[in-house]
Amino acid sequence: MSFSSLSGSFSSSSHPLVPYGWDADWEAEFAPYDSEGLLAGRVIRVDRGQCDVVTSGGVLRADTAFVTPHDPMRVVCTGDWVAVEPAGDPRYVRTYLPRRSAFVRSTSSKRSEGQILAANVDHAVVAVSLAVELDLGRVERFLALAWESGAQPVVVLTKADLVPDATTLSYLVQDVETAAPGVPVLSVSSSLGEGLDVLAAVLSGGTSVLLGQSGAGKSTLANALLGEDVMKVHATRDVDGKGRHTTTTRNLLALPGGGVLIDTPGLRGVGLWDAETGVNQVFSEIEALAAECRFHDCAHTSEPGCAVIAALDTGELPERRLDSYRKLLRENQRIVAKTDARLRAEIRRDWKRKGAEGKAAMEAKRGQWG
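Below the sequence we write its predicted structure tokens.
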């Protein structure tokens, strides 16, 4: 019997894969593989060339060798919907369905390759610990990647019970909201259960990926949302609030209140990967100001009629926000330039132009002094 003949109406929660996000659109994408007798399933874990896939008949182990193993952007990833052989030893994943979204960061390698952390994600949950001083620049970095992925970001401030009073907590939430325009910011305490009902309601529709540094409380939060101790948890160091990597693989789990959660290992490095659109979204107020500048190619440094600098002078735009915006744009440009020959040439031309302008300015000054 084919998979599609088992599916019936997707409004019914009785279908085996509906809790994992299967819907009519995925069924349509899978139809060609269904006719070949392949099984549909969702990848819930990947580990060294093999993956665990949940199918209508349960969880099975499959080999990923057939799916372009040498391209890091095309390997099978947690969250992928795949077509799997119904039998075999080993059993192979034949392909994955086109991704609706993908959370990608640059790797730490000098080749600046992209690394897909999760696929087909609707919400990117950025976990930020309130047990240590807020790093708003890191929050903005996560959000840039989240917006670029096609998912809706959500910032979750964990360990709210460690904040001394409600007034301080309110100020911390406001600080993050300023750094995250258009993004819901929630404070929770996994140990006390505070705020979890609101977060669970947000995550109940679709797939969410849980992101953050080691020690941010992701695994504790995942356990609280799941209602059981599925993920290992270790205490963080008192000195800096950092923790060990208790989660070593990306795991996809169905939430009891609806929705799917992908937990990820703590990320020490969060490099941008062709995320200019995401950066612009994070700093939408700067983009709006830039549209009012006198010159369309304004660099927002010393040009006349610059609305960005004017907002900086009046205090409307915090200097920290502008510095962070410039930093992320520069970093993203460097990453893209390593794989884009045309952009590399444009950057070199820009460097030469600025160098010539600087040289001319210095010569003019020397002439005045002489």
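The first helix runs from residue 3 to 7.
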